[in-house]
Amino acid sequence: MPNPIHPVILCGGSGTRLWPVSRKAFPKQFATLTGTHSLFQASAMRLSGQDFAAPVIVTASDFRFIALEQLAAIETAPDEILLEPSTKNTAAAICAAALSIEARHGPSLMLVAPSDHLIPDTDRFRATVAAGRASAEAGHIVTFGIRPDRAETGYGWLELTEAPAPDFPPEPQVLRSFVEKPDAETARRLFEGGTHLWNAGIFFFSTETILAALARHAPETLRLTRDALANARLDLGFRRLDPVAWQDLEDISIDHAVMQKADDLVAVPYGGEWSDLGDWHAVWRDRAKGSDGVAVTGNTTALDCRDTLLFGASDRQEVVGIGLEDMIVVAMPDAVLVAHKDRAQEAKEAVERLNAKGAAQGTQFPVDYRPWGWFESLTLGNRFQVKQIFVKPGASLSLQSHHHRAEHWIVVEGTARVTIGDEVQLVSENQSVYVPLGATHRLENPGKLPMRLVEVQTGSYLGEDDIIRYDDEYARG
Known about the structure:
This protein is an alpha/beta fold. It folds into three domains: 5-270, Alpha-Beta Complex (Spore Coat Polysaccharide Biosynthesis Protein SpsA, Chain A); 280-354, no CATH class; 367-471, Sandwich (Jelly Rolls). It is 23% helix and 32% strand. It is built from twelve helices and 28 strands. The strands form six sheets. It has a six-stranded antiparallel beta sheet with strand order 18-19-20-27-22-25, with no helix packed on it. Helix 7 (207-217) crosses helix 8. The model has no long low-confidence stretch (mean pLDDT 94).
């Protein structure tokens, strides 16, 4: 592949404005909000094809197995997955990706994109990227702006030197300035003026160009990130950036660290459908709706509703709306959000209140993803809990024991290899096994197909921290 574009997909964020679907443990980029793929998967597929190399993923340690599993589901192998020790905004993430790409591939073109944007017209987006390639190859920093359709206060804006032509593919234009998120009156003037675009946070440049810009405008970010990469360690195929160097990095966006200081930037207008899906109002706005303005997802029924979103995330629930107008209703197995569309952004405040009173639903997700698969809590009562456990082919849980609970496993799909003390046995579908309190045990899937079981826990304490690991191929404590 001659001179491929190296995609860099940023997916370390954990916003709460799309709670309860998006939570700290499972942020919106990994959720399926539209179509059949998550926003992260859609981003990876959009940035693939004959012009693109394998993607570099920059994410948090907590999300590494989710990202890897979702890439595997769309048959995409990453070039590298960089793990940030903590969130330091986009400047450090982009710097780490640029250093890594240049070290492994030499000077290269790289396209940086968030993982949580909705861009359904893949062909148009790729053509827009292609329109900016010559500028990136010539040493410019290229940014992509969205042609606005309203006076939006929730986005930053890009000021051009002249109004963009309606031509397609679009022509790159000189970028005059960045505009911070405006108030309503300023947004109206920007929209009506015709020389501004929304800032999409998508950038295209060579590794040489961005590293030179960082050296000039953010030398400390470059120095510390270089140290973090030089002292990184491999962990199950992931590259963990060094936390000692990383902790001293400034928490700053690439816009503030470089873009607003650099000269000779160009912008390429994108005229296709786009949304950052920043809150549930945006999800409603960008979903297909009937003549009554009602958008539905999952097992839902709307009776005499108008301009409303009904979102059901579980196949075990039915969501019914009657006589609703301008409402958001989102139902998860463990939490339900009901809000007026105009107050959708207050979901963030609701999460803060849940966290303040110690409600698990504020941060935890009903499905807990692990390197070996996942589990889901089906019901929880006084001294008992029932879970569904899914183990990937060839995967193994740690050798462990519990102080406060016993477990009963019933295999419903596949075959499990179970170790209890010194005894190892195969447990097939419709068979069960009992793990006494305190017994050392391990669960494995020796087959080539997924294995699923139902776990019934009984005991005085059922928290996930009641675990002693004796051996773990994933090197967890």
